[in-house]
Design a protein that fits this description.
- The chain is α+β, with helices and mostly antiparallel strands and about 290 residues long.
- About 50% of the residues lie in helices and about 10% in strands.
- The strands form 2 sheets. Strands 3-4-5-6 form a 4-stranded antiparallel β-sheet, with no helix packed on it. A two-stranded antiparallel sheet has the order 1-2.
- Strand 1 and strand 2 form a beta hairpin.
- Helix 2 packs antiparallel against helix 3 and helix 4 runs antiparallel to helix 5.
- The N and C termini lie far apart (about 40 Å).
């Protein structure tokens, strides 16, 4: 668990970016967290988790639809990068300790993103690997457990798909994925930037201390949710909007919770709005 925690902390620290230039000199009595599209999708998925009836954790479909609609306006990158899907899977694997629960939630997750059928075994393999690491397996044991779950996975049962061409494409890709050596697979994860093999190296001082504190809150929330010990982040649709809010305004937003409007200015393209929230600082371009 400690190795998993340390690697996750390092992975998320690597997603940090500089403060947006429009607010470089701005001071408010709050920390600013600006980060890449990969960490953005991690937090979006985390906020959309809700307890399922009976067992496990599912995705609030209504909230995820709303979050992804807004994300297109503030994403630090491209929303169609398939590597982003790996970061969204991490929260799912952390909160679902049973494989059947994880399979169900991954089915939900992939319904939101256009992905070729031959990529699904790769994402499943990653989800099982993260789940095993989070459940205190060491590296080699986690690889063996992940491969075992991928072998046992029933595509037709989970995805309710009887299209023969899709089934064949899935099975071919599964064989390729299962055939990869542990060393080859881990090298792929590290080189792709979707997992880390390093302990937290940032000095625990100044802004880094704030960042580690924030990442710690994400980790504790997901760990607590996996044990059924925390309340899911609330979501109540009230149609709150930030578009016409003035700089300095403090408001409660459906998706972001309490938010401070740092900037709301007209540009040649429309408007630039920057808000600061508990989970991050977001720059909207319209």
């Amino acid at each position: 668990m400690e190795r998993f925690k340390s690697n996750l902390y390092q992975l998320l620290l690597e997603q940090r970016i500089d403060r947006y230039k429009e607010i470089e000199g701005l001071y408010i009595n709050q920390p600013f967290y600006c980060y890449t599209d990969r960490m953005q999708i991690f937090i979006i998925i985390m906020k959309c988790l809700a307890y399922a009836e009976g067992s496990g954790v599912m995705i609030n479909d209504e909230r995820l639809t709303d979050e992804l609609r807004l994300w297109a306006y503030y994403v630090n990158g491209q929303t169609d990068d398939e590597k982003l899907l790996y970061f969204g899977i991490i929260p799912l694997a952390m909160v679902n300790q049973k494989t059947d629960d994880l399979n169900r939630t991954i089915r939900q997750y992939l319904d939101f993103f256009p992905i070729k059928i031959d990529r699904i075994p790769e994402l499943l393999h990653y989800a099982y690997f993260i789940q095993a690491l989070n459940n205190e397996a060491d590296g080699s044991e986690a690889m063996n457990m992940a491969k075992k779950h991928l072998i046992e996975f029933s595509y037709t049962d989970v995805f309710s798909d009887i299209d023969k061409s899709r089934i064949i494409a899935f099975e071919k890709a599964r064989i390729v994925q299962i055939s990869r050596s542990s060393d080859d697979y881990l090298h792929y994860l590290y080189s792709s930037g979707v997992w880390s093999d390093a302990v937290v190296s940032a000095e625990v001082s100044g802004d880094n201390r704030e960042w580690l504190k924030m990442i710690g809150s994400l980790y504790n929330y997901l760990t607590g949710m996996g044990k059924g010990q925390v309340k899911a982040i609330s979501y109540k649709k009230s149609d709150s909007k930030i578009y016409h809010q003035k700089a300095g305004k403090v408001m409660t937003h459906d998706n972001f919770g309490e938010a401070v409007i740092l900037m709301n200015e007209k540009t040649e393209a429309g408007k630039t709005i920057i808000i600061n929230t508990r989970y991050g600082c977001y720059k909207f371009n319209n």
